[in-house]
Amino acid sequence: MTFSELALALGGFTGIVLALRSRGGGGPGLPRPLLVTLLMIVFGAAIIPVICVAVLNFCADPSVAWRIGSLLLVATAVVWFGAVVPQMERTREPSSGPGWFGVFIYCISAANGLAQTVNVFGVFPAHEFAILFAGLTWYFASGAVAFSRTLIFEEAE
């Protein structure tokens, strides 16, 4: 099973959860930042590997494909940190911080962004695919975390 197939499955399950929640008042609506995060992850994880395969078909040098994939991961991370994280922080109660798990997610995401940025510039040519693969794996793992949040989300009263 490829990353694209896993991402589409994640998107499908998310859609099912949202439909069941909205049907007959089955639960509260999800916060917009969580929905945007899920959409970014699902579409990013589905599209980035396909773009890499397309580049592989048209380019003789595989490192170009891996570096383009890393560039796309960096771009989505910049959008997420620039647009979604501030929304998450605005909707959070002032007395509560992101918690240890939120800080962990932010730190790993920042480290992944740094690794992908280094990969874009080809600093470690022997490991370009491995760095991209690790980044896509983290991308999908963070999507699984966001999906699990849809299952347990309860609106604050």
List keywords for this structure.
157 residues
How is this structure best described in words?
This protein has helices spanning 3-22, 32-58, 62-91, 99-120, 128-152. Helix 1 (3-22) packs antiparallel against helix 2. The chain is built from five helices and no strands. By secondary structure, it is mainly alpha-helical.
Number of strands: 0
Enumerate how many helices there are, as a single number: 5
The class by helix and strand makeup works out as: mainly alpha
Oligomeric status of the shown chains? single chain
> Which regions have little confidence, pLDDT < 50, spanning 5+ residues?
none
Give the N-terminus to C-terminus distance in angstroms: 41 Å
Mean of residue pLDDT? 80
Cα-based radius of gyration, to the nearest Å: 17 Å
